[in-house]
Each structure stands twice: as structure tokens, then as C-alpha cells.
Amino acid sequence: MMNNSTQERSRVRKINKVVLSIPNLRWHKTDFTVWTLHPYNLCLLSAMIQEEYDVAIVDANIDNLSRNEFVIAIQREKPDVVGISILTNEYGEAGHIAVKLVKDVNSNIVTVMGGAMPQCLIRRLSKIRMLTML
User: Fold this and answer.
1) Domain locations in the chain?
2) Alpha-carbon distance 70 to 73, whole Å?
3) Residue 54: enclosing H or E segment and its boundaries?
4) What sign does the CA torsion over 111, 115, 116, 122 have?
5) Which helix (H) or strand (E) holds 100?
6) Contact between residue 100 and residue 111 where contact means Cβ atoms under 8 Å apart
7) Are strands 17-22 and 54-59 parallel, antiparallel or unpaired?
8) What is the pLDDT of residues 12-49, one digit of tens each?
9) CATH superfamily assigned to domain 13-125
């Protein structure tokens, strides 16, 4: 018979591959100025976890990836976890699109959304079924 700690360990998945991403802001709107920001936040996160995990950065915004190109990048990397960074509320819908695209690739991929937008709208975002954590 398994005790509680054994049961907990059996439910925990091993995480090997992490993709940190910024969605293409143009997926949601095209009639605005797109900020071209270096993904310093993703680079910092990557540096912090690279000794424990295989990490890749997919910056769909700077690379102006289409939705299909983003899907291909996720398929190529085969991540266990995808972190999606949304810097402002104005571009929040691009984050929702990114989560859906990741889940369409593989519904078992853990999706994590961070940045200013999720912090401001945590109650609203917590109701999104496809989003694993904030």
C-alpha cells in the first residue's frame, strides 16, 4: 500500500525541457505600434534554471513568427513546460492565443503565464482551463 508521499511522487512528472516564450503581439492586433523589446526577462529566467533543465527561448514577437511557425517551434523543442511572458494588459489576447497553440500541440504540456498582465488579471486568468499556472 502506498503512503501519501509515495502517491505524491508518483503523480509528479519529471520536467526535462522548458521553453520560455513571448507570443507575437501581432497575432491579436495589427493596428498598433509593436514594441521590439529584447527578451531580457526570459534570458534571466533561462540563466537561473539552465543547470537543472534544458531551456530554449522562442521569441515569436522579435522573430515575427506566424502562429504556424510558433507551433512548429514548440513541436521541434518537445517541451514539458512552456512559460509565456506577457508584458502589458494591452497584449493579453496574444498570450491566450499562445496557450491555445501550445495545448493544440500537446495538451499535457504544462503552460505557465507570467509578466505584468497575469499579475494584474490573476482572477480572470485563473478561470482559463488551458492555463496550468500563473
Assistant:
1) 13-125
2) 5
3) strand 54-59
4) positive
5) helix 92-105
6) no
7) parallel
8) 678 999 999 999 988 887 666 667 777 888 999 999 99
9) Cobalamin-binding domain (3.40.50.280)
